[in-house]
Structure formats: structure tokens, C-alpha cells
Amino acid sequence: MKSIIKFTAACFIFTSFLSQNIQTQETPPVDNFPEESPLILDLPTAINLAITSNRNFANSLDNIQRAQLSIDLSLSAFDLRLIPSGDVGFIGGGKAGLGGTVGGSLEICKKFTFGTQISLRPYASVDAKHYHTGLQAKIVQPLLKGFGKEYTLAPVFAAQFAYRTAFRGSYASGVEMIFRLINAMYNIVRLETILKLDTEALQRLTHFYSAIKVKERIGMADSLDVYRTEIELKASEDSINSSQESLQDAKDRLRELLTLPLNRDIVIDLSTEYVPLDPIVEESISSALANRVEIEQAEDRWNETRRLSKLAKSNLLPDLDLVLDFTNFGYDEVFTESFTTERDSRWGIGFMTSTDWNRTAQQIAYQQSIFTVVNAERSYNQTQDSVILDVKRAIRALHRASQKIVLQLTQIHSSEGGLKLAKLKFNRGLANNFDVIQAEKTLRNAQSAYQSAIIDHKIGEYRFLSAVGLLVDKPKICL
């Protein structure tokens, strides 16, 4: 568990990185390390490099920024707006005509969250004979369609949902990236261990081949023994070449994941200490249901579809607005006098309505929204079931790895005894080298399987943490 605690500390780097609206940490860039020295990667260092340089993760962070801009855009509809306007023209007709006209106005308007719209518009104009000045004030309040925060703030709520979705998507992308990183690093450790075992086996076979050649000269072994050893020696060399190629491919994948130069030498520093784990299924499922971001997103989507369904239902109502307006205006041949002489005022109160008797589009949209809500509920339930299955699979994988470790340990002990016995019988002329070669292969396979089982268990630990939602602390979404 020490490695998990060490890893959890590294995850706080990722959590703070995400919760601070994705601002780059002051991490020493890889280019600062001398090119000739290998880059030593433990888990915290690799995670820090990944979250600051991985391209796919950077794209997910950009989605958060775009979603935040969408929220700002939707909220701007409730800002105090200043709308200047002007006109220049010529008016003719009638008995005398008015000639050229010039005018301008400044509309000050504000929209409120219950749908209320207030506007104030001072204006002034001049024609051939008079100056005209005035002030218009207007209040419009929707009474049916468009009334209330649910309708007025609908674009804001939609933008906030998109932001939460982008945030959770970025978090999920980060968790996936970290798990891929763990898998890639432990795969390198696995291949390095297998390469080491193959090299040791080749050294033993080389020594055994030298001994066979000596025995052939003195008549204690025949040419068939030599041929068998040579064949196994070539097979061992080919196995080493394959292991080296696989190791190079694995390191290239890690370099790509960390956006490192493809010729950069890297050294993996990971613990392979085996610590048995026996998680309780019920507690693990409860933790997953409480922490997995997929469930949170599915529930949020369900709530969003219900909100949109209510909005679609309100669109079935006709437009009915309460309108209050007031106008004060005047004119005079002198501009300043137009503010005091010949002033007049008028006001009005009334209702404005418009509707389409054929509401087919709105009715179909509402019916479709109901189906969307039902589908979202099914998706939420399906997500819960999928999470539970993920937890159970992760626990079973841990148990299988633990059983395999115990089994391969027993197999190693048996293979070591079999190899000693085969060598003893061969040295005394009681058996040929076929038994020695087979015992050597059995021991090497058991050692490789044991090391692979250890790595599988280590990866399984992190897969289990990911399944229960504890691989990386989930940051709080702040709007």
C-alpha cells in the first residue's frame, strides 16, 4: 500500500491542476534535463509531466475554457446595455415639406431573470423648422410564455450544463490518461524483468553449451546433445531480441504519452512490492456509486433533460405580455427651448399577444422531450449497473492475480528442484541434456509468469482504485 499512498500524493498535483481552472504548474520542463542523462521517471514525476504536456488532456482543458466563455456569453444578456442609434434623411411631401433631418438616440435597456425588460430611450432630432426632443420609457413583462427564471435563464442553465459536462470530461480524460500512464510504465517494468530473465537464461545456456562441448570431446555426450543445446541457445537469443524490440516499443508509447523526444532515454523507477488486497465488494460498490464521475454526469444529464422538457411544455403557451409605456416629448425652433415649451406626455398600459393556432412543431418537440427524459433515466440506471460490474471485474482481477502469484511461486520452487535434479542426472550420465533444457525452460517460464502476475496485481490495484472512483480525488465544480 505504500506505493498507493505515494501515488495518491501525486494525484493531488492533478487535482489542484484541474480545480484551479487548469493553470499550468511550475514544473521543470523536460528540456531542462541534460540530453545525455537518462530521464528517471517515478510515478509523481510522470504524472506531472503528463498533465502539463499530454496533447489530448490539453484539448480537454480547452473545452472547459470554451464552456466558460459560453456561460459568460449567456449571462451577458442580462447586462445593462447601451444602444446608440442615429439617422440622417430627407422628408418631403405635404404642403411645405420638412427638408433634411438629423436625429439620434441612446437606448438604455436591462433584462431581468423573471423575463422583465425595461428600456429608457432619450432622443433628439432636427428638421427644417424645429428641434424635437423626447424620452421614452417601456416595461414589458411576459405573463405566460417567457415568465419565470426557468424560461429566461434557459440559455444560462444550458451553458452551465455544458460547462459541467466539459469539466467532468476533462477529469475523466485525466483519470484515463493517468491509468494509461501507469499501465505503460508497469508494462516497461514487466518487459525489463522478462528481458533480464531471458538474459540470465541465455548465460546459463551458454555455460551449459560450453560444458556439453567439453563432454562431447571426452565421449560423455553425443552430437545430438550439442545440437539440442545449440537450438535452445538460438531460441533464447531470438527471445531476447523480441523482448528488446517489445521494450523499445513500450518506451516509445510512453514517450508519446508524455510528449517526450522519441530519442530520449528514460529509466522507470516503480515499486513492484506485492501487497495482498482483499476489498469488500459491498463497500467497494458503495464507494463507486458515490464517487464515479460517470454516475454524476448521467444524473446531471437526466436532470437537464427534465428541465428541457419543462421548457418545451412552456413553449406550448401563447405569448402574452403586459406592456407599460410612457413618452414625454416636445419641439421648438430653439433647441434648448424644446425641453421646456410645448412639452407633452402620454402613457399607456395594455397586453400584447401572438400565437400560432397550429402548434404542431411545439407539441412534437414536447413529446420528443418526454422520450428524451425516459432515455436519460434508462441511461442513468445503465451507468450504475456498468459501474457495479466494473468494480466486480476489478476485484476478480485482483483475486486472480493473487492466486496466480501464489501458484507461480510454488511452480518456481518445483522448477528449481527439477532443474537441479536434471543437472545432477545429466552430470552422472543418467539422462541426456533434453531433461536439463526442458527444466530450464520450465523455470524461466515460471519466473516470467510470476513477475507478470506481480505486475498484473500492481496494475489491478490502480484499476480497482479507478473502478471505485478513488484513483484521483474528484475536484468540486465551481461555477
Assign the structural class, choosing from mainly alpha, mainly beta, alpha/beta, alpha+beta, or little secondary structure: alpha+beta
**Tally the helices: what do you get?**
10
The backbone outline, from C-alpha atoms, is elongated
Strands across the major sheet, in which order? 2-3-4-5-7-8
The CATH architecture of the largest domain can be given as Up-down Bundle
Descriptors:
two-stranded parallel ribbon; 61% helix; 10 helices; 479 residues; alpha+beta; 2 domains; elongated; six-stranded antiparallel beta sheet; 8 strands; Outer membrane efflux proteins (OEP)
Describe this structure in words.
The relative contact order is 0.12. The chain has helices at 2-19, 43-53, 55-75, 149-152, 154-217, 223-258, 281-291, 293-314, 360-427, 433-467; strands at 39-41, 81-91, 99-111, 117-126, 131-142, 266-268, 319-332, 344-354. The chain has ten helices and eight strands. The two termini are 36 Å apart. It has 479 residues and is α+β, with helices and mostly antiparallel strands.
